[in-house]
Write a structure and sequence with these properties.
The protein has 143 residues and is mainly α. It has 4 helices and 3 strands; from the N terminus they run E-E-H-E-H-H-H.
């Protein structure tokens, strides 16, 4: 999720991850920049909005196939996840969390994740700039 169309534009842009595990019937929200204890997590609120949209899409799909709506409790868990030490690396933290979850690995600690993120930056930059099929031709695009 990206907060670019956030109800809280003063918060800027922040990437978090909402995961639906359909088999376990759970949603999990990963936020690498959780607020201080006692503060409201505005990004969790937005995850709830997105979760409702996902559930509506699933229910519409099921209705077309004459299946009942989702009947399981639809709550969002907030598992602990690595916390970034700056305000710039949230997208890379999301990538690292996705990588760990999709491979079945334990989530890294914040310290380990920061070193992984630091290693990930040049790798992703190289992949993005080196992908001729999907990258921009700056000479052509910027004339």
């Amino acid at each position: 999720m990206n907060t670019s169309k956030s109800a809280y534009p003063s918060e800027g842009f922040h990437w978090t991850l909402l995961v639906l595990n359909y088999k376990k019937k759970t949603f999990q929200h990963y936020n690498s920049m959780k607020p201080r204890k006692g503060s409201v997590d505005k990004f969790y609120e937005e995850a709830g909005i997105l979760k409702n949209e996902v559930v509506n899409c699933i229910d519409q799909y099921r209705a077309k196939r004459k299946l009942p709506k989702i009947s399981w409790p639809i709550q969002i868990g907030t598992p602990s996840c690595p916390q970034q030490g700056n305000t710039a690396d949230c997208g890379l933290y999301v990538c690292r969390i996705i990588e760990a979850l999709s491979s079945g690995d334990k989530l890294p600690t914040s310290k380990d994740c920061q070193s992984n993120v630091d290693e990930l930056k040049p790798t992703l930059t190289g992949q993005i700039l080196g992908d001729k099929e999907h990258s921009w031709d700056f000479d052509k695009e910027c004339k």
